[in-house]
C-alpha cells in the first residue's frame, strides 16, 4: 500500500504543483525549509529598511491538523486543482470509513469508523493537507501568509502604526479555518514582534479566538531559532551543543580503528549535517565569534579523524550557490525575480539594501556569490586563453 501511495503522491505533485500557492513550500520541486525561512526573512528585512516600520509575526498552531480534513471538502478542492475525478473518488474513498481500534494487552476496544482526517504516518497526509489549505492565502500586499504543510506563519508588515490589514487578515484566517473544520490552538500560537524603532510605544496584544496570544522574544521556526533582534547566537549555541554531543561517538569509532574513509562518512552524516543545518539562513549574518565556535568543532573532528575537512565557509558558499541556482532556474519560485541579469547578461543585478541586517541575509549574499563565481570563471577562461597563446608562440618559435 505504501508503494501505491508513493505513486499517487508523485502523480498529485505533477498535476497540482503549478496551481499551488507560491508561498506553500512543502513538497514542491526545488524548494526546501530554508527557502521558507529565507523568504520570511526577506519580507521582514525589506520592510524594515523603511523608516518607522516594524513587523508582527504570528506562528500559527493547528489542533490535530491532519485529523480534521473533511473528505468531501478535500474532493472539491482537488477538483478545482484539475485532479481527475477518478483520482478524487479514490482519495475520498481512501479517507472515508477507516476502521480503528485500540489494543491494550489482551483487551481490544470496539471497532470505530472514522470519517474525517488523514491516517497518521500516511505518505499522502502532508500533501493532502497542503492541498486542503491551498485556498488559505493573504489578500493584502502588506501581509504575507507562508506555509510549510501544517506550519503556517502570518507576517504583518506594519507602516505608520497601521495594523488594520494585519488584524483583518488574522480575522480572515480564523473565519477560513472555521469554514474548513480547522481548529486554531491559541494556547500554542505565538507572536514575535521585530521592531528596531527608537523608543517604540507598547503595542496592543493580539486576540485569537477570544484568547490573548503569547508574545515571545524567540521562536524555533522550521528548525531554526529566530529572535526578535534577528541575531543568531541562540541558534548557533544550539547547533554547537548538538555537534559537541555527537563528537563522543566519533571518538569511540576511532578507538575501534575504523578506516579514515568510514570516519569521514560518519562525520559528514552525523556532525556536519548538524553544523550546516539551514546554513544558508544564518551563516552570513552570524558573528565572527559564533562562526569560530562552530569551526572549532570541525578542527577537533579533524584531529580525531586525522585528515582535513571542509571548512564552514566552504560549505556555506557551495550550498548557497547551489540553492540560489535552483531558485534562479525556477520561474514559479517567489524569490526567482531577485536573480535578474544585467543587460550584459554576464552578471546579476545586485539587491539594494539599506541595513547590514538585510545585506547579510541570504538573497543579497547569494547574488554576490553567483556574481563572484562568474568573475572567477571569466578570469580562469582568460588565463587559459593566455596560456594557449603563450604555448602557440613557443611552438612557432
Walk me through this protein's architecture.
The protein is an alpha+beta fold and 397 residues long. It has 13 helices and 13 strands. It has helices at residues 2-16, 33-48, 71-80, 85-95, 125-132, 164-179, 233-255, 260-275, 279-282, 288-305, 312-328, 356-359, 362-396, and strands at 53-60, 98-100, 103-104, 107-108, 112-114, 143-148, 151-159, 190-194, 207-208, 211-212, 214-215, 218-221, 224-227. The strands form 5 sheets. A 5-stranded mixed β-sheet has the order 6-7-1-8-11, sandwiched between helices. Strand 12 and strand 13 (224-227) form a beta hairpin. The radius of gyration is 25 Å and the shape is globular. The mean pLDDT is 89.
SSE map:
Elements (H helix, E strand, L loop, with lengths): L1 H15 L16 H16 L4 E8 L10 H10 L4 H11 L2 E3 L2 E2 L2 E2 L3 E3 L10 H8 L10 E6 L2 E9 L4 H16 L10 E5 L12 E2 L2 E2 L1 E2 L2 E4 L2 E4 L5 H23 L4 H16 L3 H4 L5 H18 L6 H17 L27 H4 L2 H35 L1
Helix pairs in contact: 3-4, 7-8, 7-10, 8-10, 11-13
Amino acid at each position: 500500500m505504501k508503494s501505491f501511495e508513493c505513486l499517487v503522491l508523485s502523480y498529485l505533485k505533477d498535476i497540482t504543483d503549478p496551481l499551488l500557492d507560491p508561498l506553500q513550500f512543502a513538497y514542491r520541486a526545488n524548494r526546501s525549509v530554508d527557502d521558507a525561512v529565507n523568504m520570511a526573512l526577506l519580507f521582514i528585512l525589506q520592510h524594515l529598511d523603511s523608516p518607522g516600520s516594524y513587523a508582527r509575526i504570528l506562528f500559527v498552531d493547528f489542533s490535530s491538523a491532519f485529523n480534521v480534513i473533511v473528505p468531501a471538502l478535500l474532493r472539491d478542492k482537488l477538483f478545482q486543482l484539475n485532479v481527475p475525478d477518478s483520482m478524487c473518488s479514490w482519495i475520498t474513498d481512501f479517507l472515508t470509513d477507516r476502521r480503528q481500534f485500540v489494543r491494550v494487552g489482551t483487551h481490544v476496544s470496539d471497532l470505530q469508523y472514522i470519517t474525517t482526517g488523514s491516517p497518521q504516518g500516511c505518505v499522502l497526509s502532508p500533501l493532502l493537507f497542503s492541498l486542503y489549505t491551498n485556498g488559505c492565502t493573504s489578500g493584502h500586499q502588506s501581509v504575507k501568509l507562508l506555509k510549510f504543510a501544517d506550519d503556517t506563519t502570518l507576517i504583518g508588515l506594519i507602516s505608520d502604526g497601521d495594523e488594520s490589514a494585519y488584524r483583518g487578515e488574522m480575522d480572515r484566517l480564523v473565519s477560513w479555518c472555521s469554514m474548513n473544520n480547522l481548529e486554531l490552538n491559541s494556547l500554542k500560537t505565538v507572536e514575535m514582534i521585530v521592531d528596531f524603532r527608537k523608543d517604540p510605544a507598547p503595542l496592543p496584544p493580539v486576540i485569537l479566538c477570544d484568547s490573548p496570544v503569547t508574545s515571545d522574544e524567540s521562536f524555533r521556526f522550521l528548525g531554526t531559532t529566530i529572535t526578535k533582534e534577528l541575531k543568531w547566537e541562540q541558534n548557533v549555541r544550539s547547533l554547537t551543543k548538538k555537534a559537541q554531543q555527537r563528537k563522543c561517538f566519533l571518538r569511540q569509532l576511532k578507538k575501534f580503528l575504523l578506516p579514515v574513509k568510514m570516519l569521514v562518512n560518519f562525520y559528514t552524516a552525523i556532525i556536519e549535517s548538524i553544523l550546516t543545518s539551514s546554513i544558508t539562513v544564518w551563516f552570513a549574518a552570524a558573528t565572527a565569534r559564533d562562526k569560530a565556535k562552530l569551526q572549532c568543532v570541525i578542527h577537533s573532528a579533524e584531529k580525531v579523524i586525522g585528515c582535513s575537512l571542509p571548512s564552514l565557509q566552504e560549505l556555506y558558499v557551495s550550498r548557497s550557490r547551489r540553492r540560489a541556482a535552483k531558485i534562479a532556474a525556477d520561474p514559479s519560485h517567489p524569490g526567482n525575480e531577485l536573480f535578474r541579469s544585467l543587460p550584459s547578461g554576464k552578471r546579476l543585478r545586485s539587491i539594494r539594501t539599506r541595513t547590514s541586517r538585510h545585506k547579510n541575509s541570504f538573497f543579497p549574499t547569494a547574488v554576490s556569490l553567483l556574481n563572484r563565481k562568474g568573475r572567477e570563471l571569466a578570469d580562469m577562461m582568460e588565463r587559459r586563453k593566455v596560456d594557449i597563446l603563450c604555448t602557440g608562440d613557443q611552438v612557432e618559435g
